[in-house]
Amino acid sequence: MTDLSPYAAYQHALATGFKPDAAQRTAAEYLDRCYQQLDAGEPRIAGVYLWGPVGRGKTWLMDRFHQSLTVPARRMHFHHFMRWLHRRLFQLSGQQNPLDVLARELAAEVRVLCFDELYINDIGDVVLLSGVLQPLFEHGLVLVTTSNQHPDELYAQGFNRERLLPTIGAIKEYMEVLSVDGGQDHRQHPGQKFQRYWVNQPEALHSVFTGLLEQLGEEETGAPLILGHRAIRVTRRSERVLWCRYDDLCEQPLAAADFIELCDQFSHVLLSAVPRLTDAGPQSPIARGTEDGVFQVAAGDRQLPRLSRLDDGVRRFIALVDECYDRGVPVYLDAAVPLNELYEEGALAFPFRRTLSRLQEMQLDRFAKNNPPKHN
Length: 376
Hints:
The protein has 13 helices and 16 strands. The protein is α/β, with parallel strands linked by helices. The chain has 2 domains: 6-179, Rossmann fold; 190-370, 3-Layer(aba) Sandwich (Rossmann fold), CATH 3.40.50. α5 (98-109) crosses α6, α10 packs across α11 and α11 runs parallel beside α12.
């Protein structure tokens, strides 16, 4: 909690070096109004949905709002929220209408839920969100979230998207939907450089690894790394520094929850032998049907993006960078191509823009200083 309201925090940031941004100002005003209504104990309060391109300050604004609150609140990255949702549902197995039970519990614990980077690309997430968001709204929980997409664009080409439409309608009914796009990626503002990306220089990561161990006062260890009950091959590691090859981490059957576990353990991640992630070879169409474990769903003959053979690994790489960025864990990479050539086109071009922006910010000294590692 801070003494500054969201709008006062924005004004303070302007006075200490932030560049004026009309879209940020408008978002700060809406968040401030929500804060004032919560502070006054009003019963029916609209949440706020901040959307726009990468680097526009959405997360910073949401965090200032969360820090200002005097009512019970929870702030989570979307991956963390989904992991919690899966775990709690498992605990509620056998109960009737478990999603409604979960929604009542959460609404009783907190008045406000903030989560960052709402992005849906899986029919399983559609099923769970569709079952939990509507009752959360009905129980009076105030939701504040960030996303790179307008609600109408969520899961735009996904299987059985019609199952998400009632949830999109509820978001627009219970939340103020605001575009935050002042036309510039604030992560690219000039700053002191701190190189964490190299092209075909494997010796660079050896120097980084040695330097980090000296800085942290640690020794190399041969301890195994287990993620999601799976042994992961490690190039080198210490207690808080991990070095893996790209294939050994991103081409393994890992999920976002496994990268959460990884960042629980390590404060620095080194990744070597990162290939060009755009596959020049033939691409395979996405399967026409899938199963979510509860209902059989059919996608029909809808035209969907074509996935390359590398895209499963790219999804994991995106999830890894998202988690490391959100937790303040620097990622050091040695790759086959320059950063802006890693993934130039393909089915994952949209989410990869966020990855590119975040990796570019990691090339600045202020990333590690402004984002000290956060461990759960």
